[in-house]
């Protein structure tokens, strides 16, 4: 039986645990695989604004230049369909990562098949970004350079 003004220790412990978990999730940030998935979702949707956010060019481009480059890509690849599945990643350095994935080009064709690829990511201003120059030109038509 509880007396007035006293709290069960389990409730206090669970509350503290929830606060710690939320805090860790807030400070950890996005993983390379999550960024790569965002890249592919934006590529599939034709979302040039999102692609400008999650990619980095060499030499660097402004957000407006990157958006314009992605818009031009989508002019040429309007009807291209693909499927991807991320299989893993490695971090050879704290600011570099390589994400491995399986990719099916022209997914609506009966003769489509899975191929293995990888993409390099760089950490820019504390956020993972896909290095566009590392994306294999065979996976998507008219990728920006």
What does this structure look like?
The chain has a five-stranded mixed β-sheet with strand order 1-5-4-3-2. It is elongated and about 70 Å long. The protein is an alpha+beta fold. The chain is built from four helices and five strands; from the N terminus they run αααβαββββ. A hairpin with an 8-residue loop joins strand 3 and strand 4.
Strand content: 25-35%
The unreliable regions are none
Number of strands: 5
Largest sheet: 5 strands, mixed
Q: Please state the average pLDDT score.
A: 86
SSE class: alpha+beta
Give the CA-CA distance, first to last residue: 70 Å
Write down the overall geometry.
Answer: elongated
Read across the widest sheet, the strand sequence of neighbours is 1-5-4-3-2
Helix content: 25-40%
Total of DSSP H or I helical runs spanning 4+ residues: 4
The oligomerization state is single chain
* Helix/strand order, N-terminal first: HHHEHEEEE
């Amino acid at each position: 039986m509880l007396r007035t003004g006293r709290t069960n220790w389990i409730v206090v412990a669970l509350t503290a645990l929830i606060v710690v978990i939320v805090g860790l999730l807030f400070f950890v940030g996005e993983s390379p695989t999550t960024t790569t998935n965002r890249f592919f979702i934006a590529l599939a949707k034709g979302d040039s604004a999102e692609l400008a956010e999650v990619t980095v060019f060499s030499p660097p481009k402004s957000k407006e230049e990157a958006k314009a480059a992605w818009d031009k890509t989508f002019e040429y690849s309007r009807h291209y369909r693909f499927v991807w599945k991320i299989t893993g990643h490695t971090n050879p350095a704290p600011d570099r990562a390589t994400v491995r994935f399986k990719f099916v080009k022209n997914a609506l064709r009966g003769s489509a098949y899975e191929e293995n690829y990888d993409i390099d990511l760089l950490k820019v201003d504390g956020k993972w970004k896909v290095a566009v120059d590392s994306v294999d030109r065979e996976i998507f038509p008219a990728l920006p350079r």
